[in-house]
Amino acid sequence: MAKKPLPLSKVYGLLEPGPVLLLTTAKGDRKNVMTMSWQTMLEFEPPTLACVISDQNHTFDILTDTLECVLNIPTVDLADQVVGCGNSSGRTTDKFKIFALTATPAARVGAPLIEECYASIECKVVDTGMVDVYNLFVLEGCKAWIDPAVSDPRTLHHRGKGAFMVAGETIKRPSRKK
What we know:
single chain; alpha+beta; Pnp Oxidase, Chain A; seven-stranded antiparallel beta sheet; two-stranded antiparallel sheet; 5 helices; 11 strands; 16% helix
């Protein structure tokens, strides 16, 4: 195979770490949802994650104030809502209403679960040390939810410029024993 140069501005499309998420926050009686694809696992138990949220986003302000959120994992059937939430601002839009998403109360945080998503992880911010420089929040999962009816979720993975890859076939190989 003969490789050719790739502009550095396109590298993120190769390395997107996981499924696109719908991150929810709430402040007072106002709920918000944003599309996010820049997150990564840091630790297994308790589940600890890092995510980047632009300081230009409405969610950044809410998360900085409340230090809690929910990471909701949509499947491909929510692709239009995922894109719509990503292309609009919660400062001026009730995204739950506009995109027909159902907010369900969480057990441990003030931000809501999204009923239509197959899984949700309630999180608390545990480290803000890199927020000022990188907009990077470290989150710890404190409660997780999954729809048992979804056995093989087809999640969305952002490739950049409005392109998504859909998770496909699951393969299994031997893993190390614990």
